[in-house]
């Protein structure tokens, strides 16, 4: 009994930190669910971007956004307000891609406990100063999440 509980806990940790990856012309994007450090604290989705072109950067504004499928056991806070302006590559400010983006998430009311696969979409804007363009990018993941 104790051995099976320990195995289940180890599997839970391994699943929650196993990143899912997707690729595009300009970035490799990976994401993983990060369980809360303590009971009652929010968990998180950790997203990492690996640049394929040294000239392409991800904008601070509009900020990257996280969205879950409607039946998700996780809830993301509303995205920060945006000015709605189209990014200008000459004046854009960029995030530091050496650090992952962290999105806090909470468990939805009445969410079933145990292992779930959560359809997750990350949207972001990125620019090339050299080529003078900006684009919207998206990455989709099926993240393994174990809720206690």
Summed up, the helix count is: 1
Main sheet specs? 5 strands, antiparallel
* Major beta sheet, strand line-up: 1-2-3-7-6
What's the average pLDDT? 83
Q: Which strand-content bin applies to the residues?
A: over 45%
Helix content: 10-25%
Unreliable stretches: 1-17
Could you state the order of secondary-structure elements as H and E? Answer: HEEEEEEEEE
Q: N- to C-terminal separation? A: 18 Å
Query: What sort of overall outline do the alpha carbons produce when their principal axes are compared?
Result: elongated
Task: Give me the secondary-structure category.
Answer: mainly beta
What is Rg?
Answer: 17 Å
Q: Please give the number of β-strands.
A: 9
Notable characteristics:
1 helix; 45% strand; 148 residues; disordered N terminus; 5-stranded antiparallel beta sheet
Structure characterization notes:
By secondary structure, this protein is mainly beta. It is built from 1 helix and 9 strands. The strands form 2 sheets. The protein has a 5-stranded antiparallel beta sheet, with no helix packed on it. Strands 4, 5, 8 and 9 form a 4-stranded antiparallel beta sheet that branches. β1 (20-23) and β2 (27-34) form a beta hairpin. The chain is elongated, with a radius of gyration of 17 Å.
